[in-house]
Amino acid sequence: MENHEEELIRRRAYAIWEQEGCPEGQHMRHWEQAFREMLGQSGSAPNLGNGGARPSKRSPSPRRKAPKSGAGSQ
Length: 74
Prior knowledge:
With 74 residues, the protein is mainly alpha-helical. The protein has 2 helices and no strands. Helix 1 (2-19) crosses helix 2. It comes from Sinorhizobium alkalisoli.
């Protein structure tokens, strides 16, 4: 039944994502929140067959560097 529990977590994470307005880059937080909710309901960790592995992490968005203050301003 490992796939069943993982599917429940996946569906809950998707629902959380939708409730928050479909923000990008929050999939890990949504998965973890759904996983924690599942822990709270069952009283023990779900047996996902993959050691509770999280979904594969996509490469992060490049971060923009903040401009240096005072550079080029008078």
